Amino acid sequence: MAIVGVLALQGSFNEHIAALRRLGVKGVEIRKPEQLRNVTSLIIPGGESTTMAKLAESYNLFPALREFVKMGRPVWGTCAGLILLSNNAVGQKSGGQGLIGGLNCTVHRNLFGSQLQSFEAELLVPEIASSEGGPETFCGVFIRAPAILEVGKEVQVLADYPAPSNGLLEENVEEERRVIVAVRQGNILATAFHPELTADTRWHSYFLKMADDTGEEALSSPVAIPVD
Ligand code: GLN
Q: What's a BP term from Gene Ontology annotated to this protein (predicted)?
């Protein structure tokens, strides 16, 4: 059985816990490195990635989070969570920020613009629809949303979307350019939008299947989480 942790430093962790509850699963709030020993999978919510990174730094969570990902434990990042899981982030307002990394991609932190440019869009996600059934499309809630610009060969693209024409991408990009908004790389699932803010629990049930696949094995070999 999988035990799902939800990083509860900032952002939409309560909404993820509520979505899990609708599927009959209790999400465990994670704020300290040693708490990662007690869970077999982890959701990193949306919010504000620089704030989350600063809090993770002050709680000394980065080494444990990196180890958790490296151990192959299922991890799902939504929005700010996607940014934190990326190996490379661009589009920061000032300087860099701490990243957990593991997901071989380059993400633009705010490609879809500010709060005012937040939007909802129907997305085609064949992988999740064929796994979970139901309608072919998913409601993507994009809030100050990032987008993935480049992925490594090992990354499976689950959904893409037309790039916004707001001048944030380098000049002379073709009109029709699309950017990536959902991916899976082995144990890592990442979405630029917020399934936890919709009534559709198919993303959560897909992640629970990923988590169940490795849950048994994970429980029998607990992670040696570095706590200092
Ligand atoms: N773009 C935001 C950031 O940099 C993420 C927005 C979100 O999580 N809704 O953290």
A: pyridoxine metabolic process
Determine the residue of 48, 86, 120, 179 to mutate for testing ligand 1's pocket, defined as the one with the most ligand atoms within 8 A of the Cβ atom: 48
Tokens of 198: 């919709």
Catalytic residue (one of 15, 16, 108, 194): 194
Spatial neighbors of 188 by CB under 8 A, at least 6 apart, are 69, 74, 75, 76, 77, 85, 102, 103
pLDDT of residue 175: 63
Question: To which CATH superfamily is domain 4-220 assigned?
Answer: Class I glutamine amidotransferase (GATase) domain (3.40.50.880)
Looking at the CA of residue 78, tell me the nearest atom of ligand 1: 8
- Strand 137-142 versus strand 103-108 pairing type: unpaired
- The model's pTM is 0.94
Which of 110, 119, 168, 179 best tests ligand 1's pocket when mutated (most atoms within 8 Å of CB)? 110
Residue owning the nearest CA to atom 6 of ligand 1: 144
What number does the ligand 1 atom closest to the CA of 110 have? 1
pLDDT at 54 exceeding the cut of 80: yes
Query: What pLDDT, in 10s, does the model give residues 61-79?
Result: 999 999 999 999 999 999 9
